[in-house]
Design a protein that fits this description.
7 strands; alpha/beta
């Protein structure tokens, strides 16, 4: 993702339905876990890192880009500039590695998975979210600098191949997948969908994701995949 796209995302992050729902997902997933040391790999502007810190975690962001790390630091979020393929973190030193919408940007995602295992303490947890399904590949992915979108088995193999044990793997944003697929079908040029949304529509999209939480749809195809795992 280039500097212009990161800056645009920073403007939208606090109100856009996607970012708000993703922060809510992180909060719901992590809130009952004992807080400890955490890193947020590919933290971007630090919105999800801030959620961890609000929940009592000693969390820092690791961000590859100058723009993202500068914005996170300006927001008061501890951040170090680094590469997910070679994390600037000591062996077996953290209790949680979180990475939301970052692995798809990295050519050697197997190296990122191996680094995740290296820095985790035994029993440490992993929370990773990635875009799902190459059937949804579009100019949006090109604009954001994605290398791939993930299939369920592909993500499972990547995580277990690094030595992690999967606790859960589910689809997220299932109800809106048909809408996303229809919108992207005719888009060929590199064009990001991260744009201002009318407040009424924004509220409706957030509501759709809230409704989804109560439905048995986690095994159906979605817009994203989420995996929870631990280091044995």
């Amino acid at each position: 993702m280039d500097a212009e796209e990161i800056a645009k995302s920073a403007e939208l992050e606090h109100r856009h339905w996607w970012y708000a729902a993703r922060r809510a997902l992180v909060r719901r997933t992590v809130r009952d876990w004992p807080a400890g040391r955490a890193i947020d790999v590919g933290c971007g502007m630090g919105g999800n890192t801030a959620v961890l810190r609000e929940l009592g975690w000693q969390a820092i962001g690791v961000e590859y880009t100058d723009t993202g790390s500068d914005i996170a630091a300006a927001r008061g979020i501890p951040v170090v500039q680094g590469d997910g393929r070679q994390l600037p973190v000591a062996d077996a030193s953290v209790d949680l590695v979180m990475s939301t919408d970052a692995w798809e940007h990295i050519d050697d995602d197997a190296a990122v998975a191996r680094e995740t295992v290296r820095v985790l303490r035994p029993g440490g947890r992993v929370l990773v979210a990635v875009p799902a399904g190459m059937a949804l590949w579009s100019g949006h992915d090109v604009a954001l600098g994605h290398v791939r979108r993930y299939e369920r088995q592909q993500l499972a193999d990547l995580v277990t191949g690094a030595g992690l044990v999967i606790d859960d793997l589910w689809s997220w944003n299932v109800l809106l997948r048909p809408v996303v697929r229809a919108r992207r079908r005719n888009k060929h040029a590199a064009e990001s969908e991260m744009e201002e949304v009318h407040p009424v529509l924004n509220a409706g999209l957030r509501a759709a994701l809230a409704v989804e939480r109560g439905l048995p749809v986690k095994r159906l195809p979605g817009v994203s995949l989420v995996v929870l795992a631990h280091k044995p």
